[in-house]
Write a structure and sequence with these properties.
Layout (H helix, E strand, L loop, with lengths): L5 H10 L5 E3 L1 E3 L3 E2 L3 E4 L5 E7 L5 E7 L7 E4 L12 E4 L5 E4 L5 E4 L10 E5 L5 E5 L10 E2 L7 E2 L5 E4 L4 E3 L1 E6 L2 E12 L5 E6 L2 E5 L12 H6 L5 E4 L3 E5 L9 E5 L5 E7 L4 E8 L14 E3 L7 E3 L3 E3 L2 H5 L7 E3 L9 E9 L7 E3 L4 H10 L5 E3 L10 E4 L6 E3 L5 E7 L19 H29 L7 H16 L7 H8 L5 H7 L8 E5 L2 E7 L5 E7 L7 H12 L9 E7 L2 E7 L6 H5 L10 H21 L14 E3 L5 E3 L4 H12 L1 E4 L8 H6 L4 H17 L14 H10 L17 H14 L10 H9 L26 E4 L17
Parallel strand pairs: 1-4, 26-34
Antiparallel strand pairs: 2-11, 3-8, 4-5, 5-6, 6-7, 8-9, 9-10, 11-12, 12-13, 14-23, 15-16, 15-22, 17-18, 18-19, 19-20, 21-22, 23-24, 24-25, 26-27, 28-29, 30-34, 30-35, 31-33, 32-33, 32-35, 36-37, 37-38, 38-40, 39-40, 41-42, 43-44
Helix pairs in contact: 11-14, 11-17, 14-16
Bound molecules: 2-acetamido-2-deoxy-beta-D-glucopyranose (11 copies).
One 2-acetamido-2-deoxy-beta-D-glucopyranose (NAG) binds next to strand 10.
């Protein structure tokens, strides 16, 4: 992998007098001094002596020939040598021993089996230092291996956890500081008592919890599941409980580190930039901190404030809560009455701490409920695993700590409440049996009365307000015209102020609230990474879609207005029109035109509806999206990179014309993130270009990648993520194989087979594949894409291997990873959204 073989290297090194000598195996008769190293067969890892600025000497393993020496293993971390005059030997007992200058043993592998006859020490290409019998071919039968004794790093193939027969634990412990490998305060350790769960500890405190293992993944880190493509594994039975981290992006060059700074970091080597990039780290957001919201509090990174009490509970210490100290959590409003209690059904939550729960893997949910109800100390229950739609039973009998609310991931949880507290507000209703008929009727009547009252109030208000707000259709028409004039003649500065005010219709909160029936559930259209979308109708009958932004962004109103204003100026027939915004109190909302046919994904991926889309329509949609994107990238006054192009962000109007939505939102959210110097990686796995997903580098070419994925989805009617097709890893892999076998037409969604133009389809598949090529520089820019789509004569380049051909099960997870923003530009590709002002 890294060039010459070790044999060559041996000769090469031996030629240089006095230089470090590298070998790949150390025999019992040899010894290793500080002028020698052991190198793995393919030159990936190196083992030997090293010193740090604290002037102590260690033996350890590092990546050979990589920039920055990264030590993945240190043998004598707590017993350093004072100088370089140390020797490593294999003793007759089969022990590996490090001696110091005066020949005192400093460190030993402490191997107790003494049966070794001809032991040798070997460093393998996965970074494992093994002591084995020279003639032993079986590569699992080691006398000793460094993989069983990690320091601060887990490499692919290493594990974390417990041997339950011997009680021996394998954990990773941070260095003390950047230059001191001795054991620091942070460590990462598996808890297997209830449900397997990994805790990051620092200074004797739990800092972060991975979220209970749900049979497939860790509940608390949905994004990680998508990145490691679910190769993270837990093996737990009577004898063992181990966690095996996956290769990130299927690369051996990945590692998990507990940093001395107190966080876990997962790195992947990016060959194109020759850097180690942090793919995931924790704790990264406030909700990552263990128990951030206290007992019976639930944390939601997208909410403001991030903590709230579970329905049926109230804030215990309002004073501290107001100061954003949520640690006291929440208390019950009504005491429990054991047998008479009910259960609150919560969705998409991360399980509370499962350290000492009751678990029975063969009980079903009903048995679980009745067992919990009978046991008066039971506070909640749930399915233990999500496999097969939910199996097993888990029961809590203590305070529920460290719950999180997700919008898509997470599991169902049933929390015990006094009967009178169940059936409150929001999406969490009681368990099915709870709402009796009487309750139902009562609620219906109350809603009816409320509705009438609201309607009367609304009528009254409307009469009082007259036409003074900016929600009227005529107003908006003028504003649009004005802004179009501005657009074409932006140097005209006369009366700039007035016009600027007009350019951005500001809706009053009550107008939007009325239009959406007070943001009623019935009006809810969907939920995305940035907030919830509601359907509404203004007084004049104009239909609107309202995006209520999650209030977690601390952006000021002025900046918000500026951003919305700039985005509102973008107009194109393939972009959804932004009518204006609403800023009031903590609320920030964007008002869009409403689209009759909803989003592309709701039709494309729906078996019943997809036949509505024949080939001419699909081709029109592909071309429309391309034109919209071309406008954003090249023709608009501000260069906008969408960053989250996907089927659900393409809306269809009455004539099935595609319109891109959510453009520029990343820009609004980015602004406030810049001072904290962290960047929210927005986007959706399955559509994200590899360089963006892995390194956070994004450019117009990352949008081109997403566009390519979308094209192939439109042609095939299949989703790239969650794609199952014989042995193919995902849709891209599937298309790539068909293409190379000359069977590209097999990709077609069978529902429109008779309406096709073969050459158009082939051209579209070709363009799609060109757009998803792995290398950024190979992908075309949007003007070329539009040209290629529309030219029947142009000869298209042959696509190269697509990027990101990952495994199955890439859940659709919206942005949720925060990471350091290391650099703004790469390969001179412009990053973020370049501001034209
Ligand atoms: C390494 O150094 C030791 C003494 O420090 C010496 O005996 C040995 O020959 C050296 N080995 C090489 C390969 O230079
Ligand atoms: C290791 O020690 C040598 C001399 O003993 C010194 O020159 C070098 O700077 C040290 N390396 C580090 C990383 O401190
Ligand atoms: C290592 O040992 C050699 C010979 O025993 C001696 O000359 C040298 O000074 C020692 N090095 C250090 C750093 O003590
Ligand atoms: C070698 O180790 C012994 C025992 O730990 C210690 O007493 C001695 O000072 C060490 N010698 C050197 C040169 O570090
Ligand atoms: C080896 O065993 C000795 C004595 O039992 C102990 O003091 C030492 O810490 C052990 N070393 C390692 C590396 O486990
Ligand atoms: C990764 O390591 C495994 C095990 O050592 C090896 O079989 C595989 O070939 C390696 N893959 C690459 C791409 O180097
Ligand atoms: C290698 O050793 C392990 C453990 O002793 C044993 O289970 C396995 O069958 C062996 N494999 C081969 C190929 O000999
Ligand atoms: C720990 O974090 C610091 C600061 O972010 C970084 O410079 C360092 O490389 C990290 N250490 C490891 C072992 O990853
Ligand atoms: C938060 O509140 C708890 C209990 O009221 C208190 O012990 C703790 O010191 C507070 N933490 C901070 C950071 O103020
Ligand atoms: C809670 O459940 C655990 C596991 O079933 C049990 O060991 C413990 O005694 C229970 N505690 C209470 C207070 O019921
Ligand atoms: C788990 O539940 C099943 C079915 O209710 C029961 O037969 C079994 O004994 C339970 N196992 C344990 C360990 O409680």
């Amino acid at each position: 992998m890294k060039g010459s073989t070790s044999a060559k290297l041996f000769i090469l090194s031996a030629c240089f007098f006095n230089s470090v000598l590298s070998i790949d195996t150390l025999t019992a008769t040899q010894s290793l001094g500080s002028n020698q190293t052991l190198v793995s067969p393919q030159n990936i890892f190196e083992f030997g002596f090293f010193n740090t600025t604290i002037s102590k000497w260690y033996i350890g393993i590092w990546y050979k020939d990589f920039p920055d020496k990264i030590y993945v293993w240190v043998a004598n971390r707590n017993n350093p040598l004072e100088n370089s005059n140390g020797t490593l030997k294999i003793e007759e007992s089969g022990n590996l021993v490090l001696f110091n200058q005066t020949n005192n043993p400093i460190w030993s592998s402490n191997q107790t089996t003494t049966s070794a006859t001809n032991p040798v020490l070997h460093l393998s290409d996965d970074g494992n230092l093994v002591l084995k019998e020279a003639q032993e071919k079986n590569n699992t039968n080691y006398i000793w291996q460094s993989f069983d004794h990690p320091t601060d790093t887990l490499l692919p193939g290493m594990k974390l956890g417990w041997n339950l027969d011997t009680g021996v634990e394998i954990r990773v412990t941070s260095w003390k500081s950047q230059d001191d490998p001795s054991s620091g305060d942070g460590y990462f350790s598996l808890d297997y008592h209830g449900i397997p769960d990994i805790y990051l500890w620092n200074k004797q405190q739990r800092v972060f919890r991975s979220g209970s293992w749900n049979g497939e993944s860790f509940g608390g880190v949905p994004i990680l599941n998508t990145i490691s493509v679910l190769n993270d594994k837990i093996v737990a039975d009577k004898h063992q409980a181990y966690y095996y981290p996956a290769r990130l992006f299927q690369s051996n060059l990945s590692r998990l580190v507990v940093n001395w700074t107190g966080s876990i970091e997962r790195y992947a080597w990016i060959e194109s930039t020759k850097t180690w990039n942090i793919v995931w780290n924790a704790p990264a957001v406030d909700c990552d901190h263990y128990g951030a919201c206290g007992p019976f509090g639930i944390c939601d990174s997208n909410a403001f404030p991030i903590c709230k009490c579970v329905t049926g509970f109230s804030i215990k210490n309002q004073g501290q809560w107001n100061l954003r100290n949520f640690s006291d959590g929440c208390v019950r409003k009504t005491e429990l009455e054991c047998g008479k209690d009910k259960f609150l059904h919560m969705k998409n939550v991360q399980f509370p701490d499962t350290r000492s729960v009751f678990v029975n893997k063969s009980m079903n949910l009903l048995e679980c409920e009745s067992k919990c109800l009978k046991d008066c100390s039971c506070t909640a229950y749930a399915n233990a695993e999500i496999t097969n739609g939910g199996t097993g039973c888990v029961m809590w009998n203590y305070s529920l700590v460290d719950m999180r609310q997700f919008s898509e991931a997470g599991t169902d949880l049933f929390i015990r409440l006094a009967a009178s507290d169940v059936g409150g507000t929001g999406s969490s209703g009681g368990s099915k049996k709870n709402a009796g008929k009487i309750a139902g009727i009562t609620i219906a009547i109350v809603i009816l009365i409320l509705g009438v009252i609201i309607f009367i109030l609304w009528k009254k208000k409307r009469r009082q307000k007259g036409n003074t707000n900016h929600s009227g259709n005529s107003d908006r028409g003028q504003i649009t015209l004005l802004s179009e004039m501005m657009f074409s003649n932006s140097r005209d500065t006369s009366d700039q102020r007035n016009i600027d005010e007009l350019e951005l219709p500001l809706f009053e909160f009550h107008v939007i609230s009325d239009a959406t029936n007070s943001f009623s559930l019935a009006n809810k259209l969907g939920e995305g990474g940035f907030g919830t979308v509601y359907r509404g109708r203004l007084v004049d009958g104009q239909e609107i879609a309202v995006k209520r932004l999650s209030t977690s962004s601390g952006q000021g109103n002025v900046e918000f207005k500026n951003e919305v204003r700039s985005i509102a100026k973008l107009q194109h027939r393939n972009l959804v029109r932004l009518f204006g915004c609403c800023i009031e109190k903590e609320e920030k909302m964007l008002i869009y035109e409403y689209m009759e046919n909803n989003s592309l994904d709701s039709i494309l991926f729906d078996k019943a509806k997809s036949s509505m889309l024949d080939w001419p329509m699909r081709f029109n949609i592909i071309c429309g999206i391309a034109k919209g994107l071309l406008y954003l990238h090249h023709d608009s006054r501000f260069r906008i990179i969408h960053r989250d192009l996907k089927a659900s962000n393409v809306l269809l109007d009455r004539e099935m014309n595609p319109k891109i939505s959510d453009f520029g939102i990343a820009r609004i959210f980015d602004n406030d993130q810049t001072h904290s110097n962290t960047m929210r990686v927005v986007g959706t796995y399955g559509y994200m270009a590899p360089e963006y997903a892995m390194g956070g580098y994004f450019s117009a070419k990352s949008d081109v990648f997403s566009f390519g994925v979308l094209v192939l989805e439109i042609i095939s009617g299949m989703k790239n993520r969650g794609f199952h097709f014989s042995d193919d890893l995902n849709l891209l892999g599937h298309v790539w194989r068909l293409w190379n076998e000359g069977k590209a037409l097999e990709l077609l969604d069978s529902s429109f087979a008779d309406s096709i133009s073969e050459s158009e389809v082939i051209r579209c598949i070709n363009v799609g594949l060109i757009c998803v090529q792995e290398k950024v520089e190979d992908r075309p820019i949007m003007p070329s894409v539009v040209m290629m789509l529309n030219s029947e004569t142009a000869s298209l380049p042959q696509p190269k291997h697509p990027g990101f051909v990952l495994g199955r099960n890439q859940g659709e997870t919206d942005s949720s990873s925060a990471r350091q923003e290391d650099s703004n530009t790469i390969n001179q590709v412009t990053v973020t959204i370049v501001n034209g002002r």
